[in-house]
Amino acid sequence: MKYRLWWIASALFLQLLVASGTGQGQWIQTAGPKAESAIIAMMAIDSSAGGPRLLAGDYSGDILVSTDKGVSWTATAWLGSSVYTFFAASGSTIFVGTLNAGVFMSTDAGATWTASNAGRSSGLMSSVSTVVLQSGDSVAFASSPLDTLYVSKKTGTHWSTWSASHAGLNTRNAVSDVVSAGARLFAGTYSDGVFVSTDNGTTWSASSAGLTAGFVNDLATSGADIFAATGGGGVFRSTNAGASWTAVNNGLSTYDVRKVITAGNGLYAGTAGGGVFLSTDQGDHWTSWAIPGVLTPIDDLCATADSVLFAGTEADGVFKTTLPTENWTDASTGLNLNYLGVRGILVRGSNMFAGDPNGTGLYVSSDHGASWSRRSMNAPLGALVYSSAANSTALFVGTTEGPFKSTDSGTTWGPDSSGIGAVAVFSLAADDSIVVAGTLGFGLYVSTNNGATWAQKTNGLTAGTVYSLTIVGRTLIAGTSGVGYFLSSDRGNSWTPCSNGLNNLIGRALFYDGTRLYGGTYGGVYVSTNMGTSWQIDTLGMGAASVRALFGDGVNVYAGTLNAGIFQLPYGGTQWTSRNTGLTDLGVFSFGVVGDTLFAGTASSGVWKCPRSLLTSVSPPASQKPGAITLEQNFPNPFNPSTVVRYGLPSRSAVVLTVFNALGQHIATLVNETQDPGYHEVTFNGSNLASGVYFYRLQAGSSVKTMKLMVLR
Known about the structure:
- By secondary structure, this protein is mainly beta.
- Among the domains are: 38-161, Methylamine Dehydrogenase, Chain H (7 Propeller), CATH 2.130.10.10; 338-614, YVTN repeat-like/Quinoprotein amine dehydrogenase (Methylamine Dehydrogenase, Chain H); 630-711, Immunoglobulin-like, CATH 2.60.40.
- It has a four-stranded antiparallel β-sheet, with no helix packed on it. It has a four-stranded antiparallel β-sheet with strand order 3-4-5-6, with no helix packed on it. Strands 7-8-9-10 form a four-stranded antiparallel β-sheet, with no helix packed on it.
- The radius of gyration is 26 Å and the shape is globular.
- The two termini are 25 Å apart.
């Protein structure tokens, strides 16, 4: 889809290596979890030079071409920015719009691409559309969140700004699509519905009567009718040249519609949550054409001249079917694969589960990470997995849509949210008598019937966000965002602060080894020998690393950090030891053990593993200088009110890190200085922002990277 920018990743399997002559363990990357790169834009063309071909653009900025109807794909160009949309102009000219690199143009059916931004002041680009006017001239329209609308009458070689006051379009929004219908042009926008022009785009006026959803993802024409695919309102139809609109959603299972096209025997809609739908009566009725096994949104649809329909998904690749039959087959060979980040590792027997914090779901491996498969949670599309816990009868995962539970060792999952609802669950703890959930903004919930029902328990708890939890007998301990740790001796009915001695009050992790209680903070690890009555700093060998996970295997305590990797401390020990040999992703957020193997879930490169028996000697310090500029997903995300952005510099660079909203308006400058090589992090406080999607942009030298963050009130 044109506005969704989730960070999606995948993996490749490496063999276990042992550092010769030292006896120390070396981490190796498992085979996942993984997902196909998001296919945001697709187009079918019939090239006089190369025959019929398909073009696909993905989140990472690659242009991929298939000349065999999706049997295989070849990357032909990397544009350096997420590809939003394709559109063909007159002759063999093709435009592509990107997130922050502007417009590119190809005159050889997508084989080569050149930047086409003359006259444009902004690299931000949400769409490029081409329409043929009544005069027969070809005009390309390009919209930017910063500048609203550009026009080119020279096949994209030069662009001119059409000011909002002249054009009549609202400067607060970006244009998602432009289509022609008879003598009129229609422009769909991302916040204010549809606009119409009767003078070839010189002036525009609102044309949204009856259109109750202002977020228009796409426009299409079918005969004399015009269709609008909207986010939240489903599909709308106009039968009177845009004078009025009527919702036509009979049969749709979701109203988040990303794409609508006409092809073969009817009208097709791609959705986020219900797959593909077909209408053969101009939208009056819809029939599901869901793609089996596909759990992620349909970001784009296109069809070839001989009626082969293609669907591009957000994390499942490309699928195709030959119309008029419904028989979807995978058409993803050659598409990019990237690693996913992992926030929660859960082990049951030989099965290991890993949760993705970017919305592709839950993954399982039964062979020590040699292979992974996605496991349906029966959760809403895009639910982010942040935490996990288990007792003897059930497995639990915490998501942005509430808790989910499995009572059959992870084979099937379902929502477990009676009394708690679809709140973001950042932390979980469980034993056979109680399950505790820490939330984003709503404090703590407790279930005494294995998750069947939940009750909010916040008496004495002065923090709304709970990052960590542990259960010690009848005592509960909770780590919060900015108020330190709290203790309950009555199973959550009342809470008292227990932060004496803490210099950092962000309690990101907790672990109890039977004698000592460990608390992980943004300033290292603290230890308490009296169940939290008092704390002492315990960072010898670690320093003030920002701790994200604590885990014990009965012999050693392991600490996962934001950017310093993994540290190990023997039970009762006094000095932490770095354990990062072979580990290239030094953001570690979760741990798990299967047999003698320790597994670590990382920020953006899947799950890593190392035999515990080899984690016995001092590892050399791992380099914290990345090989290339990196920008990681902020954490937590969604957040309220603050989040941390982490990035890496391979060399000393002039750095500008900014935040802007979905309209391209500047919100904040987080960094504007020259910085040394290495990993850096900065905290962004969004307490003055409304709920919604925002973007953060890193410019380091000539490199620019952009990612999405979400404020959730």
